[in-house]
Amino acid sequence: MRKIKKGKAPEFIKLKNKKFLLEFSNNPTIDVNKKWKDWRGKDRLKEELRLSHFDKCCYCERVIPYFKSMQIEHFKPKSRYRKQCFDYKNLFICCDRCNGTKLGRYDKRMINPGKDDPSSHLHFNQDDVVAKTENGKVTIELLDMNDSDSKKLRCEFLNQIKEIIDIYSNRAIEGDKDAMEKIDKWFFESAQYYRLCIDNFEQHYKKIRESFLNKLKIDEFK
Ligand SMILES: [Zn+2]
């Protein structure tokens, strides 16, 4: 989980929200679920959100391979926070698994990926996600972040990264740009499980990168 910088709301969703709020103020018992279901702008919204999300779930950071599998997530559930149904700040993209786990659950202590920095609240160990704060603890529980499937996936992924680092680090510290790139790409925010990688390998990665840059400098003066 990482902080998502969505930027300003696009005009089409701002207009939709404005229209909806006007309808809502005239009729507060309006069927919000139906309004959402009938809205034809959802694909356009997904197209917009996937850019800041890098096609990843806002909670577990898994890459969602198919556009159709991307779910639009109401951080504050539309069943309880009816007025925020079309509020851009409340909308994210998540995967089937997280969507199905969270459902209508919400607690005001939950980490908001659009506002809070998850790294202040959560640490991704090799096995478990560990809470640093009460907000982290609530978030882990609501999203069931330590269920056996999620743990297995994270563990397999870490082993893959470990292998990549093992294969390419020697070449990278010898100044091989291709080898460095092979490692670098997992440490960009856009990469799958970015936070997991950072929390487990950041120091190691920084050392490799530093040696790589030093080697380039030495070669320059040869
Ligand atoms: Zn997810």
Write a brief caption for the model.
With 222 residues, the protein is mostly helical.
Rounded to the nearest angstrom, the radius of gyration is 21 Å
Shape: elongated
Q: Quick check: average pLDDT?
A: 94
Major beta sheet summary: 2 strands, antiparallel
Spell out which ligands are present.
zinc ion
Helix-and-strand structural type: mainly alpha
Strand order of the largest sheet: 1-2
Say how many strands there are. 4
The helix content is: 40-55%
Question: Helical region count?
Answer: 8
What is the distance, rounded to the nearest whole angstrom, between the alpha carbons of the first and last residues?
Answer: 44 Å
- Uncertain segments: none
Number of domains: 2
Secondary-structure element order, N to C: HHHEEHEEHHHH
Strand content: 5-15%
